[in-house]
Amino acid sequence: MNFPNILIKWYLQNKRDLPWRKTTNPYHIWLSEIMLQQTRVAQGTPYFFSFTKEFPTVFDLANASEEQVLKLWQGLGYYSRARNLHKTSQYVANELNGIFPDSYKELLKLKGVGEYTAAAIASFSYNEAVPVVDGNVFRVLSRYFDIESDISLPATKKEFIEIAHELMPKDNPAIFNQAIMEFGALQCVPKSPDCTICVFNDSCLALQKKKVSVLPVKSKKLKVTNRFFNYLILEDPSGNTLIQKRTSKGIWHNLYEFPLFETTEIVGFDVVSDAVKNQFFTSYTVLSIEECTETTVIHKLSHQHLHIQFWKVKIAEIIENGLNASKLKTFPFPIVIYNFIEKQEIIC
């Protein structure tokens, strides 16, 4: 079949100049693949440079504290990736003498490494003939071959892996994997692809049948829940404040935040004032309470929409071990809180 040859030719002419494509170092490829899970290349690239500069080897990453890793990861989201990254680096450094597993099967045993990531590392670092199947690959193959199987089902993934494996040139699987992912990212994009300039416009079944906009088929809808966060920013006469670590499992685990008052809906001054005086800061003399933002900040995660309000609470007493503005910025925060601090809206 001509498909892989045409695809690889397109790739060699159109590929982006990305740093992790210039190496077979499994540490760098692993870093890039973890960072690019659910993250656009443009957003992930600066983080890749930051991590490889700060942690040139897996030993450097393993020896860092989790807080250092989370701080450097700040803003990239899905922070469980960073925690798994750190734990895996320690395992590779301490248990495997810094040497990454050299097969798909063994790579799968690493924490935070799923089928796609293991396939990427195995093919890019070790040229193992194992196909990568991500959203880009689903899209390209479903359209080209007019496959209506529901991509949210495990059986469909197996079906696509078999097709990709059959297409893949076994002597150079890495370039095929790179090519099909790049083609999905640049040409066969989710919405309104320009099929007039596509190298497959004479053989793509979806184009011939006018089904490009309906493929791939994905039936399972992600349920989004709404949560309502009220952050209480304590300020003492010295301008110092108080933060806490999110130790419970769930979003932002082990990141820092201001004391949080979560409600079931957006609330006003009276509800917050009552909580501040009777629930949160009962040992302090509250001088004033004031909302810091004119509108509620909506922070969208994949499965949750957070409606966030920031409230300044001035107190008469000095906070023991309080943090000033410069010290505050050294802690790893969720990006929505860090941006608030950076804009100095904290002084509202």
Explain this structure.
The chain is an alpha+beta fold and 348 residues long. It folds into two domains: 3-214, Hypothetical protein, domain 2 (Endonuclease III, domain 1), CATH 1.10.340; 225-342, Alpha-Beta Complex (Nucleoside Triphosphate Pyrophosphohydrolase). It contains 15 helices and seven strands. The strands form two sheets. Strands 1, 4, 5, 6 and 7 form a five-stranded mixed beta sheet that branches. A two-stranded antiparallel sheet has the order 2-3. A hairpin with a 3-residue loop joins β6 (297-300) and β7 (304-315). α1 (3-14) crosses α11 (173-186), α2 (26-35) crosses α3 (41-54) and α8 crosses α11 (173-186). The longest helix is centred in the N-terminal third of the chain and has 16 residues, at 80-95. It is elongated, with a radius of gyration of 24 Å. The mean pLDDT is 93.
Provide the structure class: alpha+beta
- Strand percent estimate: 5-15%
The main β sheet shows up as:
5 strands, mixed
**Quaternary structure state of the chains depicted:** single chain
Mean pLDDT score? 93
Number of discrete helical segments: 15
CATH topology of the largest domain: Endonuclease III, domain 1
User: Given the C-alpha coordinates, what overall shape results?
Assistant: elongated
How would you name the CATH homologous superfamily of the largest domain?
A: Hypothetical protein, domain 2
CATH architectural name of the largest domain: Orthogonal Bundle
Kindly provide the radius of gyration, computed on alpha-carbon positions and rounded to a whole number of angstroms: 24 Å
